[in-house]
Hints:
Blueprint: H1 3-33, H2 35-46, H3 50-66, H4 68-78, H5 80-100, H6 104-118, H7 121-132, H8 138-155, H9 158-167, H10 169-190, H11 208-219, H12 224-252, H13 258-279, H14 282-286, H15 290-308, H16 316-328, H17 332-340, H18 348-375, H19 387-408, H20 416-428
Helix pairs in contact: 1-7, 1-8, 1-10, 2-3, 2-12, 3-6, 3-18, 4-5, 4-18, 5-6, 5-7, 5-10, 7-8, 7-18, 8-13, 9-10, 9-13, 12-13, 12-16, 12-17, 12-18, 12-19, 13-16, 15-16, 15-17, 15-19, 18-19
Amino acid sequence: MQPSERRASIYRRGLIIVATLATAYMASHFFRSSNVTTGLDLMRDLSVGPGALGALTGAFFFGFAAMQIPCGFFFDRFGPRRTVAGMLVLATIGGIIFTTAPSWPVLLTGRVLLGAGFGVMLIGSMVVITRWFPPDRFSTLTAVVLSVGLLGNLIATTPLAWAAEISGWRTVFAAAVLFTAVAAIAVWIVVRDAPPGHPFLARKPEPVGEMLQGLFEVLRNPRLWPIISLNFFNYACTFTVQGLWGGAYLREVHGLTPIAAGNVLLAAVVAYQLGMLCFGPLDRLFDTRKWIAIGGTVAIIVLLAALAIPASPPVWLPIGAIVAMGFFSASSTMVMTHGRGIFPDRLIGRGIATMNTSVMLGVAVMQTVSGMILGAFEPLAGGARTEIAYRSLFAFLTVILICAVLSYSRSEDIKPSEEMRLRELAKAA
Length: 429
């Protein structure tokens, strides 16, 4: 086989593997986002308040975050195939517990296991992309994975609201659990850790002591922490709106029906998918990652302020802000891509795991804190949250994100052109 034919064959095989992981990733996005549509129903069925719902939603991300560092070790030692397939089995078990839960504590347990099981999906996809494709394709292919995965978010909006009204949320969740089980089997059959001849396949597995030393090396990297500061809050702030309270806000403050609110959230997910496809290639186009991330985050800050500042705005303003926020929240992938660029290949699993830990821990903390903020305000007679309660939450998110982007602005940019130059020099050597 000619070298060009071999490269083309590896490229095609890599695309099939990435497509399989991206399809499985849909289940993660469905379960993490479902509470934005079913949240009021869960509070009613289980007789809990916004604080409990915030904790329940955050539990997914605490489980998710808890598995990031262990999975970084698993990826570097065992590879993505065995790690992802095994953890999807855990997610399936968590989904069964969640779907059949008779009470809030059992529901919480299932939610934690779901988060832990799905905690490997994005990192596994990124590790596969790193090993099967050149560095300048990382951002674009990661954006494609996220865009496909976001179909799960889309299903968790209007389709979930519609299906839940017909058959109940447990029936819909049972179908999602079955999908997760099938995805675990597909990953085991299709995914391979690296292309033929890749150093990972001939590696000598590191002893536990060396693996821990590698983690400490990641954490001691001085370029990591300014990036972590934005990584922790960017997705957390936008997902607090789009993944938890956006639907309730539109229903309780602006009087939208569940289906109408679901339509707005669906439009936001579509905008997010378009944003992924638009933001993905921008680093190669403008030869920067840092300033693309800053630009997208500043846009989110403006949109959060638009939700926080005006009293009794016309309904088109919050609807437009939530949908536009979906588009610009795709800038969070550029922060991850920026962070990936500071780690060598031997630390890529642990490096990306550390980055993703900050993302999911940020979401878990913000979901929990958001429930506490809303719960601190006296509800209306019917139990609905007041407009001032929601505006206070949005103002808090605005201030937090401003502080995060100021900290991130001190980071050193990682330019794609410089990465490619260093890669060519390494090949020549």
